[in-house]
Specification:
CATH topology of chain A: Aldehyde Dehydrogenase, Chain A, domain 1
Radius of gyration of chain A: 20 Å
Number of domains of chain A: 1
CATH architecture of chain A: 3-Layer(aba) Sandwich
CATH superfamily of the largest domain in chain B: Aldehyde Dehydrogenase, Chain A, domain 1
Largest sheet of chain B: 7 strands, mixed
CATH topology of the largest domain in chain B: Aldehyde Dehydrogenase, Chain A, domain 1
Number of helices of chain B: 15
Largest sheet of chain A: 5 strands, parallel
Number of helices of chain A: 10
Strand content of chain A: 15-25%
Shape of chain A: globular
Number of strands of chain B: 19
Number of strands of chain A: 10
CATH class of the largest domain in chain B: Alpha Beta
Structural class of chain B: alpha/beta
CATH architecture of the largest domain in chain B: 3-Layer(aba) Sandwich
Radius of gyration of chain B: 23 Å
Largest interface: A-B, 47 and 52 residues
Structural class of chain A: alpha/beta
Order of helices and strands of chain A: EEHHHHHEEEHEHEHEHEHE
Strand content of chain B: 15-25%
Number of domains of chain B: 2
Distance between the termini of chain B: 60 Å
Helix content of chain A: 40-55%
Oligomer: heterodimer
Amino acid sequence: MAERVRVLRTAKLFIGGAFPRSESGRTFEARGADGTVLANVALASRKDVRDAVVAARAAQPGWAAATALNRGQVLHRVAELLEGRHAQLVDELVATGVEPDAARAEVDGAVDRLVWYAGWTDKLTQVAGGVNPVAGPFFNLTVPEPVGVVGVIAPQRSALLGLVSVVAPALVGGNTVVVVASEARPLPAVTLTEILATSDVPPGTVDVLTGSVAELAPVLAGHLDVDGLDLTGLAGVDGVDRVALETAAAEDVTRVLPPPAEEPDFHRTPRGVDRIMAFCDLKTVWHPKGP
Amino acid sequence: MSRFPLDLGSPGWEYAPAPEARTVARLDAGAQGRLFIGGTWQDAADGATFPTHSPATDEHLADVALAGGTDVDRAVAAARAALPAWSGLPGAERAKLLFRLARMLQERAREFAVLEVLDNGKPIRETRDFDVPTAAAHLFHHAGWADKLDHAGLGPAPRPVGVVGAIVPWNFPLLMLAWKVAPALASGSTVVLKPAETTPLTALRFAELCEQADLPPGVLNVVTGAGATGAALVRHPGVDKIAFTGSTAVGKDIQRTLAGTDRRLTLELGGKAANIVFADAPIDETIEGIVDGIFFNQGHVCCAGSRLLVEEPVHDLVVERLTRRIGTLRLGDPLDKNTDVGAINSPAQLARIRELADVGEAEGAQRWTADCPLPERGNWFPPTVFTGVSQSSRIAQEEIFGPVLSVLTFRTPDEAVTKANNTPYGLSAGIWTEKGARILWMADRLRAGVVWANTFNRFDPASPFGGVKESGFGREGGRQGLHAYLEPSADRGGIDG
C-alpha cells in the first residue's frame, strides 16, 4: 500500500484577522537546519506592512477600550490554545535545529510567558500609576495608557518564546502590534497566527508579517501611523542599519525600544513591567475638590 | 445670559503703579555672566559672549559667556569626574543638600522672582507666586527621594543614569531647570545644564546658590549659549542622558542625533491643547480657566489651552464673556504687581506670533484684539482671540506660543474628542462641565498626557507631567518622573535590558 501523501500547509500572512498571501505574490523558502525546504512562506512587501498598520490602527481603540479583565482572559486563552498545539510547535522548532528538550522548554516557556502577561492586564494601572498628593485642593491621578500601534521586529533565534515575549507586553498595555517574524525561522510565528485567529483576540490586534527584516523594518520605522517600535529582533541581523531606523522613527517622535547587543535569553524572567511600560504613556488627570 | 451680569466695561477703579524694586535682582553682583564648570566660574575658552536683554524694555542686562565645544567638553568632564563621589554619597546626605537648596531658594525667592522678570519679561505676580515657589517645591519633593530610591518601583538599589545633559527653554527658565536638576541630583546623577539663549540669568544665579549651599564641584555645571551649545551637548558622547524641554522640531532633531547611541532621552515638546467647554459648564469659573489657559505667561506655555472648543449653544455667550474679561487684563510693566500680561520674550518670538496671527486672518477667521495700549519699547502683543476658526487653519494646528486663542465649536462629545485629538500634538487638554461621568468619559478618550477638568495649567512636583504623540515622551514629577534618571540595579537581570 502506498504511503499516504501529507497535506502541506500554505504559510500566509496574518492581517486584520485574515490570512492573505503577500500582495506582491512573492514567497521564500523556510529551510530546516539540514537545508530541506520546510515551506514556501509569504514574502511580505512594503504594501503588506502598510495594510497591516491600517488593520492594527483600526483595531486599536477597541482593544484598548476592552476591560483589563477581558484583555487578560483573551491573552490567557491564547496560552490555552498554544498549549494544545504543543507537539506541533515542538516539531517546528526541532526542524529548525533546536534540540528536542530545548524545543519543549521553549514551548513551555511561551505558554507560561503568556499566562504571566495575561495576569498583568489588571495590575498595571495600580503598579505603574497612582494618586498624587498635590499641594492644593485637587484630586490628581496618573494612569498608563497605550501609545497605539507598535511595530515589532521579533527575535531571530528564539522564534516562539522570543516572539511571545515581545508581543505580549505590548498587548497588555492596550496596544495593537504589527510583527515582523523571525526571518530564518518563520514557521512558529505562522502557527501562532493560526492560534490567534481561533482565540478571542480581535482581528487586527496582532498582525504578523513574514519576510525580510531588511526590507520591512524601514517601512515600519518610517510609518507615521506607528507609535512605538520594538527593535529587539535586530540583534543578530546583518545588513540592517539601526541608526537609519531610529532616525526615521524620530520623524513622528515614535517611542523606540532599542535592540540589545545580542539576543537575550528569553527563558529569564521578565523584569517587572519595563517592557509593558516601554509602549505606554502616562496620563495625569486633575479635578478640583470642593463642597 | 449669566445670572450675575457684571458691567466690566465701566471704568471702575484705576490701579496705582505698584512696581517691585528691580535692585533686588542684584544685576551687577556676583559672578554674573560666566560659565559654571567644576565649581569654578570661567569665561568661554574663546572669550565669546552674547548679550541678554529685557524683553519689556530692550534694556541690555548683561553679557554672558557663549560656551563652545571646548567649554561643553570641560563641563561634561567635570560632571563625569563628580559622578562617582556624588552617586556614592549616602542618599540621606544628597537629600540634605537638596533640602538646603530648596530652602535657600525660598530665602532668596524675591531676588530670583525679580531677576526672572527682568530676563524673561513675564509678570512679577507669576514669578513670585508660581515660578519660584514651584521650583523650590520641586527641589524639596525630590530631596526626599534621594534616600528612598529603593522604593521608586525599579527594584532595590537602582543606579543613577549618569551624566545628564539638561536643555531648558526660555518660558519658565528657573522652573524647567528645577524640573530637571532636582530629580537628576536626587538620583545621584550629575548635570550639565544649558539654559535658553534669551534667559540665562536665573540659571547662573542658581549656580551661585549651589556654590553657597556647598554642593560638590561638578555636580551641577551651567553652560550658557544658543542652539550650537545645546547641539554640542546633545552630540557629546560623555553624556548618558538628554532631558530636553522645547520645540517639537528641535526635539525631533535631538531624537535623530541620539539614534543608535543607547543614550537615554526624555522630550517635553510642543502642544496645541484643546480646552473644551460644554454648555453646562459653570460660566464664571470657565471664563477664568480659559483666561488662565491661554494668557498665563503670555501664552508662552507648551500646554497652553490655545484651542477653545465650545459647545455650539453657548459659543456666543462664552465669547462675549471672555472678551469682556480679557478687556480687564492689564498689560505692561512686568515688574508692576498689578500686571497680568507681560512682554513677549524675544523679537523672534514676536515675529512668529504676528506671522501666525496674520495667517489666521488671511485664512478667514475673525480677529478680536484687546483694546489695551502697548508700551513703546520692548516686545508686546495684545491678547487676541480668533473666532470662526476652521480645523485645518494653521492657527488651529500650529503652536503659536503667544497670547492668541483660536475658538472652534462642537455639537456632541464625540465631535469634541475627535476635534481635540486632531493635531500631531498631545500634551494637555481641558474639560469644563458639571457632569462627572462626562469628565471621566472624555478624560479616557483625549489623547493628552495631562487632562485638566474644571481647572487648567496646574502643576505639582508630585504629579507626572508630559506628552503623548509628538508632544514628546517621558514624565517630569513624582515617582514616574524620577524613573527618567534611574537605571535598574545591574544585578537585577531579566530580559528587558
